[in-house]
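Follow-up to my earlier ticket, as requested here are the two runs.
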Amino acid sequence: MKYAEEFRDPAAARAVLERIATMADRIGATPESPVRIMEICGGHTHAIFRYGLDKLVHPGIEFIHGPGCPVCVLPMSRVDECVALAERAEVILATFGDAMRVPGTRKSLLQAKADGADIRMVYSPLDALELARRNPDREVVFFGLGFETTTPSTALSIQQAAREGLGNFSVFCNHITVPPPIKALLDDPHMGLDGFVGPGHVSMVIGIHPYDFIARDYGKPIVVAGFEPLDLLQSVLMVLDQIATGRAEVENQYARVVPEHGNPVSLAAIADVYEPRPSFEWRGLGEIEESGLRIRPVYAAWDAEAKFAIGYGAGRRVVAEPEGCACGAVMTGRIKPTDCPQFGRGCTPEMPLGALMVSSEGACAAYWQYGGARAAAE
């Protein structure tokens, strides 16, 4: 298939759904004993609900929403540190729009902006670089966050700042990696997962082999998937086929975009600029070893943590989740968003209690946007 509309063809979708149903019956999947497939990426979660795939697949297939939203897994302490940076008189804070409404303990970045902080929404770290060039008397700090998808662009911006000697630009680095939290979930004895739909955009950068441990060490199938409805349905079918035939492999459904070994230019930039943190705190998952990235000492002049003596380098500050917030349980697949007692009551898109309700990749936002508001009302 060549064009996007072909991946949304109803007749083709019905054919794949019939094959999914046949395969699900073959392996004995029922609503009482479902096959539990975790989609790791928040973009997949939104696609599943946008196209109603959770309602169309065999009732013995249950989608479990994983921790694949980088804004959502950011601990509140890091949001607080970002707000504190933004409130410094000499700082212009540049951030992606997704992070603006994520609540900290005192306020969100949007509230800080309303209170007078100079916070600019940007579409790329290159926009932040341009802000630094145009404001040589100000410190421009880019709120760097995201999985391996956005990590290379931040790395390339730091390299460019170093080449230019742009001393008033720095990055508050909150970049994280996908494989370690998957391992943490698989090590959790309470998580019963039968297979994974792997992230497409992340895999475009890192390739498919970083997931080898899932099949090799845990005996679980994983299929890297695209974002159109037929991509996801085919990926579910491929997971079921592995289960039915007793296989556990890493397969690439999204081969039209994802190269087996990733993007060498991006991987080289990541390796040059970053090194693994000994550990990093994930909202809902706690501390996970070597799951976060930090800027290497050679680029310390462009590291906001070093420049402003904040973050892990200044001593970690643990902040408890708001009382009644179940973001951690939702993010780790233990409950659905509508099972959270605050969903649609104490937590709405207008007045969010947790990050999952405001991020464009958050599971709670997906439930709300595609029918969750009605469920909450009921």
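Run two:
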Amino acid sequence: MDTQKTPTENKTLHNSLTPKQIVAELDKYIIGQAEAKRSVAIALRNRARRQMLDEDIRDEVAPKNIIMIGSTGVGKTEIARRLARLVDAPFIKVEASKYTEVGYVGRDVESMIRDLTELAVNMVKAEQTESVKERALEQVEERLLDYIYPPPTSLKKSREDESGDEEEFAEREDLEGESQEIPELSAGMIEIADEPVEPESVRKQREERYLRTREKFRKQLRDGKLEDKPVEISVKNRSAPLIEIFSPGGIEEMDINFKDVFGGLMPKQTKTRRLTVSEARQILMQEEAEKLIDMDTVVGEAVSRVEDTGLVFLDEIDKIAGRESKSGPDVSREGVQRDILPIIEGCTVATKYGMVRTDHILFIAAGAFHMSKPADLIPELQGRFPIRVELKSLGEGDFKRILTEPKNALVKQYIAMMETEELNISIREDAIDEISALAYRVNEAVEDIGARRLHTIMEKLFEEISFEAPDLEDKVIVVDAEYVNGQLSDIVKDEDLSRYVL
């Protein structure tokens, strides 16, 4: 068996992040939950390892799907979202509770794969657009110059005549030997010969003068001096006719892009818009980039990414955990589980971009499991999530770290927001301790909503500053423990904390 790898395959593992690097990147945004980070880091690395295997064994390696168990606000969704950004993989977050069993009103489970494929196509298309940006900008510049300083009619006509010489010659060859058409052709040629013809020297002078002026406008355009100049441009009319088709599974079940089909049957329509040069450049850039992009290549690459590196985060899976009720199947629970099972096991889903296999898409499920437990899921579904990670509730120390340590921590966000009003906010260490302690107390007394409690407390703390910010004369504000207690005293004193912090 040949185990030699191609350069592309060798680069796959070399360029991918190691598990330690993945955890280190996640630590920049998420506090704690080391066990969950390790699990997702290993799962991500295993995908790169699978790409290094020979084809005969590569398809046999199934992804190790993960169930995250923990109360709301402990970081389940954030871990999945940051993970997808790290590897630039197609990622979609869906709520399990919005799907219903086949035959009932609601979204079918296959729509998550269609949405994921659509996201992947847009992702690859954006990358391709960036790669052809330079060539597209050149074409946009020429079109803008045509709108700013249109070529004279005589010059435009001469260009069209030159480009049509070969077609005219071919038409004349086709007409040779047809004696009945010779008199009519001769009469036409005499009429053309009788028209006044502009001397070649005059035409060349006119063209040179036009080109010199065009180059002056080109320089001004590149220097940004014409950005606010209004121009009238002709753009494609992107609005498609509204066509409603009723089918048992809905239009998304049908593997046809009706917009493209009917768009090809109808004549291309253009409309004139009056815009500034800067606005026109963006629209023309889209048109020119689309001309340079091969959509077949884009779709092929997108489908490949979905099948090999796609990531689906299935949230609120505990809401569909449960057995059949005595009166019959529960539409929102076991029926949905049965429909989700083939997607996770591996099947082929029809999309408007073709058939997409789900065998190697990584599924990360999450749920609080307050009213149920993972064992309440049907056994087949449990078996498709071999890795289970329990995320721990956040303590007072975790709240303090969340406020200060992440790259875009809450404290940094509020300071930056107030700087836009020219306010200099200084948040002392004792204030952070007081906020952390208060958040922990409220979570214990009312409902544990994790780090989201910090958002409510911080918003309450900065409510007066945010409201008065534009009119404050004193632009320096110090937030210490005394200030925190003064602003949040009602919460501290009142036993019914839920009245003040939702």
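The only thing I checked on run two: The longest helix spans residues 200-222. Let me know what else you need.
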